[in-house]
Amino acid sequence: MDRIRIRGGRALKGEIPISGAKNAALPLMIVSLLTEETLVLDNVPQLADVMLLQRILGNHGVDVTVAGKRAGEGENSGQTLQLSAKNIVDTTAPYHLVSKMRASFWVIGPLVARMGEARVSMPGGCSIGTRPVDLHLDALKALGAAIDIEEGYVLARAKQGLRGARIHFQKTSVGATHTALLTAALARGESVIENAAQEPEIGDVAACLQKMGAKIEGAGTSTIRVQGVERLHAARHAVLPDRIETGTYAMATAMTGGDVMLLGARTELLEAPLQLLASAGVEITKTNEGIRIKRDGAGLAPVEVSTAPFPGFPTDLQAQLMALMTRARGTSKITETIFENRFMHVQELARLGARIHLDGETATIEGVEKLKGAPVMATDLRASVSLVIAALAAEGETIVHRVYHLDRGFERLEQKLARCGAAIERVAG
Ligand code: UD1
């Protein structure tokens, strides 16, 4: 298994291109199941999760090709995927594929909407607490699908087709909102999705569906209205920039006292994290090219924050913020409200010298003078990058083990950081 070796203590300086958002690319790829025609997606990041979803979609019969770059496109513009679900040959998503990535469960809605049936394994993915699928199933049932659970598989059937409905979510869920939206797009009549997730990736998926002929209003707000259509057609869509990658490199820059331009980043996708960083003393400038992050001088001020659904502070930046606050001037408090068990980075950060106390959902972080390099273990996608952030500022050498977690969600991480002066390399084997 690959490891990453980091020698800390160098300030990051330069430019980091921000990739297309993983959390938009995955549902957008799944959208291809809704039409017989070809969906072209630009700015798709090259990530292990994207590769895995290509395999899962391939198993259903989707023909996925990676197109070459067009004139004028540089190495930073991501890949272009052409997805054609002309013939869906299999409506089963098997355990050995779905168990590797939770978002692959989301094929269930499009499969039942287009084919009248789907058999999808209960999901796996990051080990961050129990992550049920009840809200997805509530949405499918409201739209008229019959649901059964058999031997670890969800069977969804709607032989007579689906019909529009009011879907009121008891809890806000990004994935369940995607399921409701994708499924309602092909249901007969109007659907209203209430208490919908407002994450920008939902808006991006809705924008793509609209290009394909779907009738959607209110995506990006808590109430989405969908007028079902009989069929969707070909379209071309570019994935929006990754706000989690943006926030991650903003924190890495601040951690090392650096000065980095995050190319292509958009402030409106992460106002809450940027405001928080500004309140801690990070200089943030919006420019035509992206967002410039800079920090001079002594330690950052501590912060108090709770994670929340968008537009709140994202759970996917919680671990990174905790790494940053390990060296703040004072005591920070970070409360995790979205996922139970999402504190596995705490004991690894402690190995680097961080002082963190856990009490239920709240972590209290006492800033320390310095961190010291050590061997650490990546446990999930976002937790592992928090270790990289800490290691960039730790004295001496840190080895991060199990980096396959990083490869699921961060495109070319070592190259992006090394170009800004970090001493970071991948050790194979
Ligand atoms: C998505 C993101 C993930 C992010 C999360 C929260 C993708 C590919 N993944 O995950 O990076 O951390 O949003 O912003 O976009 N829940 C239920 N029942 C359900 C579904 C969810 O109780 O049927 C709960 C979950 O356990 C969790 C909360 O709802 O406590 C939010 O989860 P959800 O928004 O669904 O996360 P994902 O869509 O899986």
Gist of the model:
By secondary structure, the protein is an alpha/beta fold. The protein has helices at residues 22-31, 48-60, 95-98, 108-115, 134-142, 174-184, 200-211, 243-255, 271-280, 318-325, 345-351, 381-393, 404-409, 413-418, and strands at 3-7, 13-17, 38-44, 63-67, 79-84, 92-93, 117-121, 146-150, 153-157, 166-168, 190-194, 215-217, 223-227, 235-238, 259-263, 283-286, 290-294, 304-306, 331-335, 355-359, 362-366, 375-377, 397-401, 423-427.
Describe this structure in words.
The chain is of the alpha/beta class and 429 residues long. 30% of the residues lie in helices and 26% in strands. It has 14 helices and 24 strands. The strands form six sheets. A four-stranded mixed beta sheet has the order 22-23-1-24. It has a four-stranded mixed beta sheet with strand order 2-15-17-16, with helices on one face. It has a four-stranded mixed beta sheet with strand order 4-5-3-14. Helix 10 (318-325) links the parallel strand 18 (304-306) and strand 19 (331-335). Helix 8 runs parallel beside helix 12 (381-393). The longest helix is centred in the first third of the chain and has 13 residues, at 48-60. It is globular. The termini are close together. Bound molecules: uridine-diphosphate-N-acetylglucosamine. The site of uridine-diphosphate-N-acetylglucosamine has 21 residues, from helix 1, helix 5 and helix 6.
